[in-house]
Design brief:
The chain is mostly helical. The chain is built from 19 helices and twelve strands. The strands form five sheets. The chain has a three-stranded antiparallel sheet with strand order 1-2-3, covered by helices on one side. 33% of the residues are buried.
């Protein structure tokens, strides 16, 4: 049994841990407890030795390892996807270590974690802070399993504090749009980029709900006559490299596609003739686009062609072999060159193998949906300058673009993000009364309930969904025709003319 030692001004309890090894009764921080009476010290020593014999004893000194030291060991022991490791490292280095690095694990209390969270919420979005606290909880839960601490101070206490309940972490409502909004956003994104890739990609995202990384990593070999297969995604690391990895949560799936959408994909591949990328050696549906820091790279040949209503070959002839072009056509092209401020080489942009998430959202998607370039130092937020003819307007680029512009775009769905197109697709399916099992399949979600286990997808369900998507697509083309029967975006213009013939 335990024994006591008289230290003159206090008593301390001692107990046997193993042959030749003894311990002193200590608190959670590893400090020796000074008892006022011999009896108290003896009772505490007996209790500790009973824990040793029962196999329930924990070394109080174990919790004195600092959070920084344990987090380094914990991170090194993980063997996860590069994207996950990158996120954990960022959470630790940027938000957790600055606060807790030198603190012993045993000294961390729930009040410390709550105070840190309150301070972070004053600077960052609630959803981000929730994610960082989740990482902290994960690290400390492993410390509990390693018997370094007895409880996890990052565990949330439910139903406590103000605004407890579902409203605690409520964020702003996600912005969605309708089929016409998808079409108009795709058209504007294509006008901003000067090519068809963005039109096809935005429409594809709006009608399949593929995640961003799945769209960027869509390889041509996975396009089927009636569907698209999601096998991979490209995840952008902080180093700037792209990792080819499985889709999120291993959500491999085949997404049924309407006939008009598979034709759009096939036509895009035939036009662009994609080549294997330099980083992975795989052939992807969509190419990246180099964009300047301000988003305005100068007018391109395609911009001049759209403005003048001629082909890019005709513009090239005007620039290089003007004697081969009729005078009236040459005058139209020259007017477009002057209006757009076109200079040879001024619109040249280095082609990247893949889109960058931030670049795509900042300089293509956000201006397309809102009509404004976002604030990006040193530039302030500003409307996209456009020349009104042809409708819906060709972006003016380069020096003096704002002065040369005679119009600007109105907002289609301000606040809509590329991920918001996933929400949009799910919302449209809800409106069709699509069975939950089929919705989960398209979204790449898993429902583990008993009801989901006993429900199945039929061919009729798939056909009905595709018919509804086709009806909405055709209605959006009709609405776009009512605005203007032509488009400066070649792929959309062909679709509009085809729709006119089908109706006619």
């Amino acid at each position: 049994m335990g024994f006591v030692e008289d230290r003159g001004t206090y008593w301390r309890g001692r107990y046997k841990i193993a042959p030749g090894k003894y311990g002193t009764v200590a608190d959670d921080q590893g400090s020796t407890i000074r008892f006022r009476t011999k009896r108290e010290a003896k009772q505490a020593a007996d209790a500790e030795e009973a824990k040793v014999r029962a196999g329930a004893w924990k070394d109080p000194a174990a919790g004195q390892i600092t959070f920084g030291e344990y987090a380094s060991r914990w991170y090194a022991a993980q063997d996860l996807a590069a994207s996950t490791m990158q996120n954990y490292r960022r959470h630790l280095e940027e938000h957790l270590l600055p606060e807790f690095e030198d603190r012993p694990l045993a000294s961390l209390q729930r009040t410390d974690v709550d105070a840190w969270e309150k301070k972070e919420r004053a600077l960052y979005a609630a959803t981000s802070v929730k994610t960082w606290r989740g990482t902290l909880h994960l690290v400390l839960e492993d410390a509990v399993d390693d018997e370094l601490i007895s409880a996890n101070p990052a565990t949330k206490r439910r139903g406590r504090g103000k605004r407890a309940g579902r409203s605690r972490d409520r964020g702003p409502e996600k912005v969605v749009t309708d089929p016409l909004g998808i079409l108009l956003c795709a058209e504007r994104a294509s006008l901003l980029s000067g090519r068809d890739d963005e039109f096809v990609a935005v429409v594809s995202k709006g009608y399949t709900a593929m995640r961003w990384g799945e769209v960027v990593g869509l390889e041509t070999e996975f396009i089927r006559p009636t569907a698209v297969r999601v096998e991979w995604q490209l995840y952008e690391l902080d180093s700037g490299e792209f990792e080819r990895c499985p889709p999120k949560d291993d959500s491999y799936r085949t997404i049924d596609a309407p006939r008009w959408l598979t034709r759009l994909w096939a036509g895009h591949v035939a036009r662009t003739q994609p080549k294997p990328c330099a980083c992975h050696g795989n052939t992807y549906m969509f190419r990246g686009l180099g964009v300047s820091r301000t988003g305005e790279t100068g007018a391109k040949v395609v911009d001049v062609a759209r403005r003048a209503g001629v082909s890019t070959g005709t513009v090239s002839n005007v620039l290089n072999r003007p004697d081969r072009v009729a005078a009236a056509t040459k005058a139209r092209v020259q007017e477009a060159i002057d209006a757009l401020g076109f200079t040879r080489g001024g619109g040249a942009v280095d082609q990247a193998d893949h889109w960058r998430r931030n670049g795509f959202a900042t300089w293509l998607f956000t201006p397309a949906v809102s009509g404004w370039y976002p604030k990006k130092a040193p530039q302030e937020a500003r409307p996209v300058p456009v020349l009104a003819d042809p409708w819906p307007g060709v972006p003016a680029r380069g020096r003096g673009a704002q002065a040369r512009a005679d119009s600007c775009w109105v907002s289609i769905a301000k606040g809509l993000t590329p991920h918001g197109l996933r929400h949009t697709h799910k919302t449209r399916m809800e409106g069709f009364r699509t069975p939950p099992k089929l919705m989960d399949e398209r979204m790449g979600h898993i429902d583990g309930s008993v009801q989901a286990r006993y429900s199945h997808i039929t061919r009729e369900m798939r056909q009905e969904l595709l018919a509804n998507l086709t009806a909405e697509w055709e209605a959006s083309l009709d609405a776009r025709l009512a605005m203007c029967p032509t488009s400066p975006v070649a792929v959309l213009n062909a679709l509009l003319q085809e729709r006119l013939r089908d109706r006619g």
